Amino acid sequence: MGPNPTLLIVDDDAPFLRRLARAMESRGFTVDLAGSVAEGIAKAKEAPPSYAVVDLRLGDGTGLDVIEAIRERRSDTRIIVLTGYGNIATAVTAVKLGALDYLAKPADADDIYLALTQRPGEKAEIPENPMSADRVRWEHIQRVYESCERNVSETARRLNMHRRTLQRILAKRAPK
């Protein structure tokens, strides 16, 4: 990390935002938080950070707008894009706009820290024990369930699944 370890985290998932902020502060960053695209753009224009972690999908738009706002003010910011809805097209767009890396949620603080601080040209290590497909599915369902304020019917609608099927999944333990 450089002499100015300012980090802007933009995510509309408040519990995740707080957890990640605490984790990054413990690693030496000076953290600023934003819960929306508008707030992220305002903070990026007010004080462009050295580092940024931006969620791709936010309640009021796309994190790509925040990346553009940061790049207008500062070209050397190391930006990481997080998303639970990853696809190749958005990854390519994020990188073209200046993102350093693109991580799929659920990414933990260690993964984010490594992505932010890796040297140019350095390749990330392949995890020894990657999450199983069942675990990734379960994590996604949990994230949507929490974003729906633990409303089973709304979660089932968003996931395009039957409510009873969702209830059975939620009643089980997390897969390994």
Radius of gyration: 17 Å
Structural class: alpha/beta
So how many helices? 8
Major sheet description: 5 strands, parallel
Approximately what portion of the residues adopt beta-strand conformation?
15-25%
Strand order of the largest sheet: 2-1-3-6-7
CATH class of the largest domain: Alpha Beta
Q: Outline, from the CA principal axes?
A: globular
Tell me which CATH architecture of the largest domain applies here. 3-Layer(aba) Sandwich
Report the CATH superfamily of the largest domain.
Answer: Response regulator
Helix and strand element order: EHEHEEEHEHEHHHH
Number of distinct beta strands: 7
Report what the structure shows.
The chain folds into 2 domains: 6-117, Response regulator (Rossmann fold, 3-Layer(aba) Sandwich); 133-171, Homeodomain-like (Arc Repressor Mutant, subunit A, Orthogonal Bundle). Helices cover 48% and strands 16% of the residues. It has 8 helices and 7 strands; from the N terminus they run βαβαβββαβαβαααα. A 5-stranded parallel beta sheet has the order 2-1-3-6-7, with helices on both faces. A two-stranded antiparallel ribbon has the order 4-5. Strand 1 (6-10), helix 1 and strand 2 (30-34) form a beta-alpha-beta unit.
